[in-house]
C-alpha cells in the first residue's frame, strides 16, 4: 500500500514494525485494526524524544512472534485496507 | 463495536476540513492541552469580550476524534457566554461518559461524538479540547494534561 510508510529500516531489523498511514492517525488505525481483531500498539511507544526526532506525532506498531501465522499477516493487511476505506 | 458509530460522516468531515483552524492574532485567552500517552497536542486561542467568546481558533495535531471534537467545539462555543459554555461542557461530559445518556438536543452537531463512549480508550481524545477550553477561560492554568 503506497500510503503506508515504515519507520526504521535497519538491515537486521527485529520483528517489530512501526508504520504510519497517510491521512489516518495512528490512534484511529489502532481502533479500526482492533475492531478486526488485530492488536497493535499506537502512539509514542514510551519514546517521545525519538518521535520528536522523526517529526512524527504517533506511529502504529505491529510485533510478530513465533506464534504468528501468515494468516495473521493477511488479516493485518486486510484491516489496513479497511482503515483506508473508512477514511475514504 | 460498530466503527460507523464512531467514525460518523460529520466526524470524518471535520477531521478532513477542521473549522476555525489556525492562529488567532488578537487572542485574549490561550491554553495548551496535551495527551502525553498518545502524543495529541492542542493549542487553543480565544478572544473574549466581556463574558462572551467572540472568536476561537485551534492548532495542533491529533487523531480524527480529537481534531473533529475540537473543530465541532469551536463552532459550538463561538458567540456564547461563559455560563452557556459551562453548560455545554457538562452536557458533553455526560455524553462522553454516561453509558445510557439520553439524546440531548441542546448538543446539536456535537452529538455526533456519542459513539466515542463505546470506546473507552478514545474518550480522552474527545474531551481534551473541552478541558483545554476550561483552562483557557480560567486565568489559573495555561497547560492541561489528560494524565
Shape of chain A: globular
Q: By helix and strand content of chain A, what is the structural category?
A: alpha+beta
Biggest β-sheet description of chain A: 4 strands, antiparallel
Strands of the widest sheet of chain A, in order across it, are 1-2-4-3
Largest interface: A-B, 18 and 20 residues
Strand order of the largest sheet of chain B: 3-2-1-4
Which range does the strand content of chain B fall in? 15-25%
Instruction: Quickly count the helices of chain A.
Output: 3
Low-pLDDT ranges of chain B = none
- The mean pLDDT of chain B is 91
Quaternary state of this entry equals heterodimer
Secondary-structure element order of chain A, N to C? EEHEHEH
**Class inferred from helices and paired strands of chain B:** alpha+beta
Distance between the termini of chain A: 14 Å
Please describe the biggest sheet of chain B, giving its number of strands, its sense, and whether it closes into a barrel: 4 strands, mixed
Give the fraction of residues assigned to helices of chain B.
25-40%
* Average residue-wise pLDDT of chain A: 94
Proportion of helical residues of chain A: 25-40%
The radius of gyration of chain A is 13 Å
Rounded to the nearest angstrom, the distance between the terminal CA atoms of chain B is 26 Å
Strand content of chain A: 15-25%
Chart the SSEs and their pairings:
The complex is a heterodimer of chains A (88) and B (147).
Chain A: E1 4-7, E2 16-21, H1 26-35, E3 41-43, H2 48-54, E4 59-63, H3 70-87
Antiparallel strand pairs in A: 1-2, 2-4, 3-4
Helix pairs in contact in A: 1-3
Chain B: H1 3-6, H2 9-16, E1 29-35, E2 40-49, E3 52-61, H3 64-77, H4 82-97, H5 123-137, E4 143-145
Parallel strand pairs in B: 1-4
Antiparallel strand pairs in B: 1-2, 2-3
Your description of this structure?
Chain A has 88 residues and is α+β, with helices and mostly antiparallel strands. Chain A has helices at 26-35, 48-54, 70-87; strands at residues 4-7, 16-21, 41-43, 59-63. A 4-stranded antiparallel sheet of chain A has the order 1-2-4-3, with helices on one face. The radius of gyration of chain A is 13 Å and the shape is globular. Chain A starts with a strand and ends with a helix. In chain A, 30% of the residues are buried. Chain B has 147 residues and is an alpha+beta fold. In chain B, a hairpin with a 4-residue loop joins strand 1 and strand 2 (40-49). Chain B is globular. Chain B starts with a helix and ends with a strand. In chain B, 39% of the residues are buried. The model of chain B has no long low-confidence stretch (mean pLDDT 91). The chains are: A alpha+beta (88), B alpha+beta (147). The A-B interface holds A 24-28, 31-32, 35, 42-44, 48, 51, 57-58, 86-88 and B 1, 3, 6-7, 12, 36-41, 61-65, 119, 121-122, 125.
Amino acid at each position: 500500500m503506497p500510503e503506508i510508510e515504515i519507520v526504521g529500516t535497519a538491515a537486521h531489523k527485529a520483528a517489530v514494525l512501526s508504520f504510519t498511514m497517510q491521512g489516518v492517525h495512528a490512534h484511529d488505525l489502532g481502533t479500526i485494526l482492533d475492531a478486526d481483531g488485530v492488536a497493535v500498539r499506537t502512539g509514542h511507544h514510551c519514546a517521545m524524544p525519538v518521535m520528536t526526532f522523526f517529526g512524527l506525532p504517533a506511529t502504529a506498531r505491529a510485533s510478530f512472534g513465533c506464534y504468528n501465522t501468515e494468516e495473521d499477516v493477511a488479516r493485518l493487511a486486510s484491516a489496513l485496507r479497511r482503515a483506508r476505506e473508512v477514511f475514504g | 463495536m460498530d466503527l460507523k458509530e464512531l467514525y460518523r460522516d460529520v466526524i470524518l468531515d471535520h477531521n478532513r476540513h477542521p473549522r476555525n483552524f489556525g492562529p488567532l492574532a488578537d487572542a485574549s485567552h490561550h491554553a495548551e492541552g496535551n495527551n502525553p500517552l498518545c502524543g495529541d497536542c492542542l493549542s487553543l486561542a480565544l478572544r473574549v469580550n466581556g463574558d462572551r467568546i467572540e472568536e476561537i481558533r485551534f492548532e495542533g495535531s491529533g487523531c480524527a476524534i480529537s481534531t473533529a471534537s475540537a473543530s465541532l467545539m469551536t463552532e459550538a462555543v463561538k458567540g456564547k457566554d461563559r455560563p452557556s459554555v459551562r453548560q455545554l461542557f457538562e452536557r458533553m461530559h455526560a455524553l462522553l461518559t454516561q453509558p445510557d445518556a439520553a439524546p440531548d438536543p441542546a448538543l446539536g452537531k456535537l452529538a455526533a461524538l456519542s459513539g466515542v463512549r463505546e470506546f473507552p480508550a478514545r474518550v480522552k481524545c474527545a474531551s481534551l479540547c473541552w478541558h483545554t477550553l476550561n483552562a483557557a477561560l480560567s486565568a489559573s492554568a495555561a497547560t492541561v494534561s489528560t494524565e
